[in-house]
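quick one, 198 residues, struct below
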Amino acid sequence: MVAKTPFPVTLTGRHIRLEPLAEKHLDDLFLAGGQDEDVWRWQAGPAPQTRDELGLKLRELLDDAAAGKYVPFAVVHLASGRAVGWTSFMDIDVSDERLEIGYTWHGRAYWRTAVNTEAKLLLLTHAFEELGMGRVQLKTDHMNLRSQAAITRLGAQREGVLRRHRRRPDGSWRDSVYFSILADEWPGVRERLGCRVA
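---
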């Protein structure tokens, strides 16, 4: 299969729906985690303190999407019908059959639930089986042990660390820990994630 460029789509699972991120999701997103310092600790920039500040972040992401840098999704919890976070395809290189899943956050009430696992299952299925990607990468701050554990539970392989990779909002430097899943590893990962979601 020749790899394809990702475009906004809707992906539906048992617990969540991923749909193209839009300004209509702002109120739900602010309620889910707009002011939560723990939710935003490892993201670029400080935690938004107001709806307008979160709206600014959302519009910046949508502008980057319009420029082809991201394909962002709202994570909609099916039982409530509310958006509880967002996630994105990014660092997309179709010629090299790779992309990254990143700029992800979920409201604290949805941590360690099926939400993140199913979001990754939907995104990975789309990336490998519909877009024909050969590699999907994920990265996180070396101090974000919760995220590293979550990525490891997905079945991704830890590849290494880029030292002094990005400046944090407080001015300190982060090392980025890289993980990946390759196309030939995907069937085993898919089976594991499917069992966890079920």
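The domain at 11-197 is CATH 3.40.630.30 (Aminopeptidase).
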